[in-house]
Amino acid sequence: LTQTFGQMTVNLEPDVATSCDVKNYTADIALHTGLRTYDPARGWWQDPALSDCVPLFAGGASAWRTGDTQGTLTLSGPAALSRSLPLKTYAGTGGVEGGTTLTGRVKPKLRGFATGMTPVCVDSVNQIYQVSDAPVLVASVSGTPMPNLTVFEGGVPGAWSGSSTAGSWLYGGMVSDITTADPAAGHYVVETGLRGTFFRLGGTPVYTITASATGLFPDGTHVSRLHDLVHQALVQDIGIPAASIASDWADPFDAAAGKAVASDAGAYWDGSSSYTGADMVTTLLQGTLRKLTYDRDGTLRLIGITPTFLTLVPNLWGKLAVRPEEVIEIRQTDLPSELVLPLTCGRCTYARNYTVLTGSNVSPSAISATISTERSAVTVGTDAPTLEVVSPPDVLTAFQTAAAAQVVADVINRLWTYPDRRLFYVTVPFARISDYRIGSEMMLFANVDGLRDGVGGLVVGESYRGSSPDEITFTVLV
Q: How confident is the model at residue 419 (pLDDT cuts 50, 70, 90)?
């Protein structure tokens, strides 16, 4: 499910060229449509009030190109998502700002829980490592503040109490300044706060150092569910105004299930390269059957590919119904290549391991099964095996629990192991634009085999053209 926006071509009437003159940058633009009314007293057609118009598009516009009578703008989603983020980088001045070799490198970012992370070593002499550019979760254990951060050496986790063992580091407490701390041999201490999260080892490790932790957002907010992580990332990391996010922001899988579903998640960006806001959202949502979409009014909304449309009861006169006489044109189109043949099972990954350790990087004391792969997986069987074994791809998700992955695996199993899933372009009168949007359900009646008695569908796309102002085309999955 990918949104593209195409171009807008306008006639060069007075002042149009001036208002659309966007060349080497991206400007905000909003398009509305409405019906003109005839004023018989004056003898002309009167434009509607803006409040009476229906939003068509709100987003970005760039690359203004003019001809002798017309000009063209390229449309895009919100510019804030596609621009490079103002990421924190190392100054290379020593201490927590790293040495000269780190100058300009992006600092790591942890949001939610993640494991197997390779922290950035900012001071190899004093063995100081950075896990995140923001704080980590700190809990109170018997009145003592305890950070949710565990150090691993060669795949062996550190200890929280008792004596340190070979290849493992004993937690030694929290400090206010990691650069002046002096942890005892075999121990590590933690600094977490506004300048980020760091730990310092009391000694030199033999094997690769990794960590697991629960990251907070810059203002200290702690959330664990996927949709909450995306919401906070949009506001705090990407800089999307809160007013630009749908007021009913929620996990679409909650609505489908009628209750809150498991969706604990987290992600880690190690700072090895820069990234955009869209990259952050992709990392969080890929493989989860959830998608960030732009409504016609420009607000951001989270939708889900959920199977509730399969349970719709045919009702020719229901609000969701498109009746045969309303269908201007309908044609079937191809499913994505990976879904042309039905899958033999549903699968969703979870518990991503950010650092795969092999060979001399692994401590002899490590349980190699937990560190030698990138992910774990949930698999759900199907009662409709196909002649060809079509295994779903392993997409690394941000999910952290088997329960969260199971929710998605069950949906994949229900949607994509079915041998007759189809995708249609359905063109209807433009007046129906307010009844549907991407993510809406539709009861589709049409003079096509399998659709005459009505079938539930999910709107996964829409398009309209100025050359066909009375029509809108929805892409519908049935």
A: confident
